[in-house]
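4.2 Preliminary Data

To establish feasibility before requesting continued support, the project team ran the inverse folding procedure on a target of 385 residues. The structure was first converted into the token representation described in Section 3, and no sequence information of any kind was made available to the design step. The complete token record follows.
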């Protein structure tokens, strides 16, 4: 693969050498702003619907990705809306793979995923990830009546043609409050349906009202995450399924001021994240360093939450837009976070701490030790893009 653009893109950026070392970077493509569900905790659906203009046509998005592959962005993740509301989306994936894309991850709610699509997904080597937010009562409360059954049907269809999909579960307060045996039963059910990895992630939203309505407390999140961490290996052995926790679930545990628990979890953190740290060369916010986002209209944006635009790739230089984004998101956070004692834990964190109304907090180390209230605010809102 031609890689001559890599040094040109990153060599002038302070600390840009860490980006040249590893080519495992991702293009996140928001395939369409349309969705067939109205999930109560959706973090950007209303914003997407307000964007004027037509969605990218198939040829244009393939051409854009073709220009990104030589920059090292050779993995593509398909988001929505709902990707299967875009006509011929799997044909687009096939064309992307023909121009150098190595891996494709497709996130779907599963409602429109039938046997024909499942077979094509397996044929193209796509990794499907089905969104399902807990046992039926919790999931349907958040995603709509009947969506649990639809997701389960999609999982079984996918499992009949491949090694099985992954699932992604947002940890709401109702899930965090379940008895641990109920959480285990949920993992068992997904495993028996054919799931190969169950991913748990923190609720991320730009709306404080949604956090107040749906998010677990810091203590609830701590207890839930601790249970999964302590029992991860046993659950995986019993049910032959991988149990994964997003970084956003680890970090709150890691900064809590409880010496024994912190020491225990620190050991687990080192164990389960050692390989990932080596592979991706970065923790914390991955905007520009590991991920690029292309919205349905063709704008290059920093992340699906902050949504700062760096040009429209239909008309602007792909190279220049990417360089502008990478320059902004590699240098300042790295410089001001490197001396913070929490930097190894959060890696700079998510720059969108919406509760503060600003991006990465300067001097967060001092703020963390001022008051319990300050620490709780940080714990409740730190996450990874």
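Position-by-position output of the design step:
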């Amino acid at each position: 693969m031609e890689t001559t653009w890599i040094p040109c893109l990153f060599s002038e950026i302070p600390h840009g050498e860490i980006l040249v070392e590893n080519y495992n970077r991702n293009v996140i493509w928001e395939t369409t702003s349309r969705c067939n569900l109205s999930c109560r905790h959706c973090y950007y659906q209303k914003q997407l619907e307000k964007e004027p203009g037509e969605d990218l046509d198939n040829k244009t998005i393939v051409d854009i990705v073709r220009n990104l592959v030589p920059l090292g962005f050779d993995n593509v993740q398909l988001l929505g809306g709902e990707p299967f509301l875009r006509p011929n989306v799997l044909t687009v994936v096939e064309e992307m793979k023909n121009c150098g894309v190595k891996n494709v991850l497709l996130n779907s709610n599963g409602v429109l995923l039938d046997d024909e699509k499942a077979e094509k997904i397996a044929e193209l080597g796509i990794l499907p990830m089905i969104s399902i937010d807990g046992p039926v009562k919790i999931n349907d409360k958040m995603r709509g009546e009947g969506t649990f059954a639809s997701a389960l049907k999609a999982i079984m269809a996918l499992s009949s043609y491949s090694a099985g999909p992954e699932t992604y579960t947002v940890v709401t307060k109702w899930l965090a409050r379940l008895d641990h045996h109920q959480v285990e039963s949920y993992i068992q059910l997904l495993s028996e349906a054919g799931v190969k990895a169950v991913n748990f992630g923190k609720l991320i939203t730009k709306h404080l009202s949604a956090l107040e309505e749906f998010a677990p407390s810091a203590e609830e999140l701590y207890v839930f995450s601790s249970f999964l961490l302590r029992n991860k290996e046993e659950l995986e052995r019993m049910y032959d399924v991988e149990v994964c926790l997003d970084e956003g679930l680890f970090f709150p545990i890691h900064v809590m001021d409880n010496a024994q628990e912190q020491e225990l979890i620190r050991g687990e953190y080192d164990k389960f994240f050692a390989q990932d740290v080596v592979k991706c060369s970065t923790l914390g916010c991955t905007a520009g360093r590991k991920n690029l986002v292309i919205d349905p209209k063709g704008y290059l944006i920093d992340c699906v939450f902050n949504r700062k635009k760096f040009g429209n790739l239909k008309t602007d230089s792909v190279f220049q837009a990417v360089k502008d984004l990478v320059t902004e998101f590699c240098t300042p956070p790295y410089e001001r976070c490197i001396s913070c004692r929490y930097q190894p834990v959060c890696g700079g964190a998510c720059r969108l701490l919406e509760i503060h109304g600003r991006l990465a907090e300067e001097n967060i180390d001092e703020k963390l030790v001022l008051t319990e209230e300050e620490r709780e605010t940080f714990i409740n809102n730190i996450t990874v893009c």
